């Protein structure tokens, strides 16, 4: 398996914003941001960027994750700025065609994004079997159609807490 997270992958991610193919299917990345420590919080921002990059390069999607960049200019600790970031994220979600639920846990913020996607009857793709069942349960509880939830087993790197770590582990096994 090729390590897509080779040197300069973040630069290549940023180049997608300048490309002419931004009209591809738009995907909203739903992954944890909240964390117990500042280092974990930053790692979660980095992971959101990695999910975006994976979705762009391996799934041919135009992926957006506001939590990958907004915490750099808005303070998540200030309620008014957190509310602004959450509002922006939900508006961006509305402009997307699918929501990708990444990682292997659902944070409080993710639950709100998933609920909004349910209200929009938006397709929801999960990559972790446990999350798949949990999201289906959420959809059912909110009166949605659980057939909108799909489990994608082909892109299992998106189920990892850190997709870059997954590729690092793959390289060590070879």
Secondary structure topology:
Elements: H1 9-15, E1 26-30, H2 38-59, E2 62-64, H3 79-94, E3 98-101, H4 108-119, E4 124-126, H5 129-141, E5 149-151, H6 163-173
Structure description:
- By secondary structure, the chain is of the alpha/beta class.
- It has one domain: Rossmann fold.
- The chain has six helices and five strands.
- It has helices at 9-15, 38-59, 79-94, 108-119, 129-141, 163-173, and strands spanning 26-30, 62-64, 98-101, 124-126, 149-151.
- Strands 2-1-3-4-5 form a five-stranded parallel sheet, with helices on both faces.
- Helix 5 (129-141) links the parallel strand 4 (124-126) and strand 5 (149-151).
- Helix 1 (9-15) crosses helix 2 (38-59) and helix 3 packs parallel to helix 4.
- The radius of gyration is 16 Å and the shape is globular.
- Mean pLDDT is 88; it is low at 170-174.
């Amino acid at each position: 398996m090729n390590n897509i997270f080779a040197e300069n992958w973040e630069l290549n991610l940023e180049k997608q914003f300048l490309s002419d193919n931004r009209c591809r299917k738009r995907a909203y990345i739903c992954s944890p941001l909240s964390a117990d420590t500042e280092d974990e919080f930053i790692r979660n921002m980095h992971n959101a960027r990695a999910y975006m990059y994976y979705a762009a390069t391996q799934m041919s999607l135009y992926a957006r994750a506001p939590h990958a960049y907004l915490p750099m200019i808005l303070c998540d600790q200030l309620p008014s700025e957190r509310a602004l970031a959450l509002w922006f994220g939900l508006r961006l979600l509305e402009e997307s065609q699918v929501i990708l639920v990444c990682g292997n846990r659902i944070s409080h913020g993710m639950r709100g994004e998933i609920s909004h996607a349910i209200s929009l009857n938006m397709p929801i793709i999960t990559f972790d079997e446990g999350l798949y069942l949990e999201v289906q349960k959420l959809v059912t509880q909110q009166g949605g159609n659980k057939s909108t939830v799909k489990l994608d087993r082909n892109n299992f790197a998106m189920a990892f807490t850190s997709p870059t770590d997954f590729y690092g582990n793959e390289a060590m096994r070879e």
